[in-house]
Each structure stands twice: as structure tokens, then as C-alpha cells.
Write a structure and sequence with these properties.
This protein is an alpha+beta fold. Helices cover 32% and strands 20% of the residues. The termini are far apart.
């Protein structure tokens, strides 16, 4: 098994402090008009400054990662050889699911892009609980502080979906920032594979890479994520959007991406002028 030995704990934090934060309450309108609670943060990598709506939620509240965990699951799968490449196919199990794009044989790249839960459940089972736990410990994934220990205490194929582990929006932003710069404790080539899978828009004005997530809290509220980066003129900015709705029929797939697009447009993106 190809496994890197991590030196100590890698705490995935984005270093958000009062000195470099601009609170932008004008962004509240996007949450209000969609009847959601939540937060948004954007980090300018060049200056280290953050633009944040709902700072306390961003920094101090943690939620199930849902399908944003596919970033880490992919990296661990590649590093341990359980995913041989992004073209590795896992056969469809024949069970019909609501999302038609899941009902076929998929490569890793395809499964990541359509956020196919069954593919990554199989990857997690192949990795195994002990190895997965070792990597979560090495990453410091979901840790609050040096004394905290995040334990996989439910099934290996569902712990990121059932509130067994949680992560703050700040940690999500920190994770994608470290991934962007190949700073996670995985081979660079594997980090590049995951970044390619995350890149959904690439044109002359900007590049937009992200991973979404959608799950449910213990109280039944829907939680949605988008974490990633937007790059203009070869200058990266890192963002995280976290939203919550008590409506289990909330159109999360549509609303979260529209909110992200609207917020980034307000902040001046998509025109190649940043």
C-alpha cells in the first residue's frame, strides 16, 4: 500500500482573524431571497484578506461534509492505490436510483463530476476504516483543536453523510486552498487529478473549480455546500458557501449554484477584471 507518513497533524484552517476580515452584510439578501440561513467567505490569496457574511457561522459552526468529502475520498483512494486513475471504472450495481446519471458504469472523473454517492461508497469500503482513519488523523480533518480527535464511529460507506464527522466552513476553505497549491500530504499528481475533476468552467475571463455537497442535519434541515476557487488573470481566490433550509424539498442543486454565481458577480468576478 502506497502511503505517505504525515509529520504531525495538518490542521486545515484558513487563518481567518479579525485583522484581515471584511464583514459584508450586503450579501445577506441572497440568503433572504432564497429563504436560507448560512454563510459565505472569500479569501484573496494575494492579500490574505477575507470577505465574509456571517462570520460566527463560518468560523465556529461545523456540519456534515456530505459530498464535499469526495475531495478527500478521491485523494486517499488515489494515494493508497484503491483508485488506479481518474479513468478507473466501478461497475454499476444495477440498483436504480433517483439520479439517472448514477445508473451506469462510471469512471472516477465522471463519478466526481456527477457526485455519485455509490461510486465513492465503494471506494471508501476498499480503503477500509483503519486506513481512512489514519488519513483523517493526518489531515486533522474536522478537528477543533490539538486535543480533539475525530473518530469514524459509523459505517465506512456513510460516515460523511450521517453527521458522524463534521467540518467548519473555514476548514473547507482551507482544504481547497491547500489542494490548489498542492500542499496536502498526497502526491502532487493526485492533487492535480482532483483539481481537474473540480474544474467546471474554464474560459478566457476566469476559471471556476468547486465541489458541492448536500445532506441533512440531525434536526432534518438540509445543508448545502460549495467550496472551491475562482481564478482571474492567474490570481486565485478561495471561497466557501454554506446554506441551510428546514425544507426537505428545497431545490438545493439549483439554489446553491445560483447563490454562488450571484455573490461572485456582485463581488466583481466573471469579467476578467479582478
Amino acid at each position: 500500500m502506497r502511503l505517505l507518513v504525515a509529520c504531525g497533524l495538518l490542521l486545515i484552517l484558513a487563518s481567518c482573524s479579525p485583522n484581515n476580515v471584511k464583514k459584508d452584510n450586503s450579501l445577506r439578501k441572497y440568503f433572504d431571497e432564497n429563504k436560507t440561513d448560512g454563510c459565505f467567505a472569500l479569501m484573496d490569496n494575494g492579500t490574505g484578506k477575507f470577505t465574509v457574511y456571517n462570520l460566527s457561522r463560518y468560523r465556529d459552526s461545523s456540519y456534515l461534509p456530505a459530498s464535499t468529502f469526495k475531495i478527500v475520498n478521491s485523494l486517499i483512494g488515489l494515494q493508497t492505490g484503491k483508485i488506479s486513475s481518474d479513468s478507473m471504472i466501478i461497475k454499476w450495481d444495477g440498483i436504480k436510483r433517483a439520479r439517472e446519471e448514477w445508473n451506469k458504469d462510471l469512471t472516477m472523473y465522471e463519478a466526481f463530476r456527477v457526485s455519485a454517492v455509490p461510486y465513492y461508497q465503494e471506494v471508501a469500503k476498499r480503503i477500509g476504516k483503519d486506513t481512512m482513519q489514519l488519513w483523517l488523523d493526518s489531515l486533522g480533518y474536522g478537528k477543533k483543536d490539538a486535543k480533539d480527535k475525530v473518530i469514524i464511529n459509523s459505517a465506512i460507506d456513510s460516515f460523511w453523510l450521517d453527521n458522524s464527522i463534521k467540518i467548519t466552513p473555514d476548514q473547507q476553505l482551507g482544504l481547497v486552498k491547500q489542494l490548489y497549491f498542492d500542499q496536502l500530504p498526497f502526491f502532487k499528481s493526485y492533487q492535480e487529478v482532483v483539481k481537474r475533476a473540480m474544474l467546471f468552467e474554464n474560459n478566457t475571463n476566469y476559471r471556476l473549480g468547486y465541489k458541492t455537497g448536500w445532506g441533512f442535519r440531525e434536526n432534518g434541515n438540509a445543508i448545502g455546500w460549495i467550496a472551491g476557487w475562482v481564478e482571474e488573470n492567474q490570481h486565485p481566490y478561495f471561497f466557501v458557501l454554506n446554506i441551510e433550509s428546514p425544507d426537505r424539498n428545497f431545490d438545493m442543486k439549483t439554489v446553491r449554484l445560483k447563490m454562488l454565481t450571484d455573490i461572485l458577480k456582485q463581488l466583481g468576478f466573471f469579467e476578467g477584471k479582478m
